[in-house]
Amino acid sequence: FAINMEQLVLEHELGRGNYGTVKKVLHKPTKVAMAMKEIRLELDSTRLNGILMELDVLHRAVSPFIVEFYGAFFVESCVYYCMEYMDGGSLASLCCFPNGNVSLPPSLSSSPGSAWTSSPAPLAEEHLGRIASSMTKGLAFLKDHLGVMHRDVKPTNVLVNRKGEIKLCDFGVSGQLEKSIARTNVGCQSYMAPERIKGSSPSSSNVDDAFTSYTVSADVWSLGLSIVEIARGKYPYPPETYENVFAQLSAIVDGEAPGLPDDDDDDSSLTADVSENGDGRPVGRKWSPEARDWVRRCLIKNADERATYPGLLAHPWMKMDAERNADMADWAARAIEWRDRGRRGFAIYE
Ligand code: ATP
Ligand code: MG
């Protein structure tokens, strides 16, 4: 069936990106809650129809690791895109904090009986492993079943629900849509693989050139960087590079690749389990050697040496994940509550 605006009741705004607004809507005929993304494009109806036709392949993107697509339509010069509503929001909103600012609201840290005093919804290795395996399976599905790469893997494009499911959204299926979106804002945090940065020379004004100059392994880099960001609670390149795109891109191309933090790294205590050692001193939980190695293989700067999806899925860390019963619904509930409590007093993310 085809969705149109008349069937939708608009509810609140869920978030805003560089080129669109996402609202929660209710689809009256089916009573299904959906997320509707509005993308403003200055195009004629022929071109808008072309984009809708390209978006149609999304009906085939049915996987437990991909946000379900319900349909798209246009009104005036906006494309509206309806997808599964994910009631936990993005992994970025649950795990990533600008400048690593995860200090607890005073009301929480002063209540001794509260489960929230020790740590913000600790992200244990089993949770990180399940996030990594879900993202990898989603990306492998896009490649194997739709023949597309994602092109925009980052924590805001990984969504969570209270069932504990982890799903990808916002992948590039429509070349015409990609071309029409004015990518004016490169963003202060780049997830681009080094070869994408090298490939986009200023002389190539044709967007297609930039898109053909890299392959699916560029998504593997972005996957690894996203996992590191989720584990650390903040974007892994130094904050000094947030305001300076050039400094950040050269750190990605020329600097050392990021990895999972060590025990004695301050960052690790933000999201890892906090336990006590013999002296009663809290210590950050060590990420396993398997987890570190998996991430390291994603973040190999030379694209030819970087891991592939079959390689990542066959890795010992993914075997550990398959054998573990990670309680993602429990983690999601705690992370959502912590975020939403924090939001009352603090602007944590967005
Ligand atoms: P960018 O524009 O750089 O891609 P972004 O991914 O944050 O950044 P949008 O894709 O416009 O921007 O999404 C904005 C926010 O809306 C997301 O960060 C997420 O929190 C929320 N959101 C998007 N899709 C859904 C959905 N299906 N269910 C629930 N929340 C969603
Ligand atoms: Mg997005």
From TrEMBL:
Entry's EC annotation: 2.7.12.2
Residues annotated as domain Protein kinase: 8-318
Binding site for ATP: K37
Superkingdom field: Eukaryota
Enzyme kind, highest EC tier: transferase
Shown residues in whole-protein numbering: 138 to 487 of 487
Homology family: Belongs to the protein kinase superfamily. STE Ser/Thr protein kinase family. MAP kinase kinase subfamily.
UniProt GO BP: cellular hyperosmotic response; p38MAPK cascade
Keywords for the protein's UniProt record, in alphabetical order: ATP-binding, Kinase, Nucleotide-binding, Phosphoprotein, Serine/threonine-protein kinase, Transferase
Protein name (database record): mitogen-activated protein kinase kinase
GO cellular component: cytoplasm; protein-containing complex
Region listing for Disordered, in residue ranges: 256-286
GO molecular function: ATP binding; MAP kinase kinase activity; protein serine/threonine kinase activity
